[in-house]
Amino acid sequence: MNEYILSALIFGLTAGLQPGPLSILVVQQTLERGLFSGIKVSFAPVITDGPIIFAVAVVLTQFKDISLFIGILSLVGGLYLGLLCVKTLQVKEVRFSGSSDTSSSLLTAIKVNFLSPNPYLFWFTVGGTYFALGATNEAIVFVLVFLSSLVLSKIAIALVASKFRESLESRAYLWIMRALGLALGVFAISFLIKSYELLL
Question: Where are the domains of the chain?
Answer without folding.
Answer: 2-199
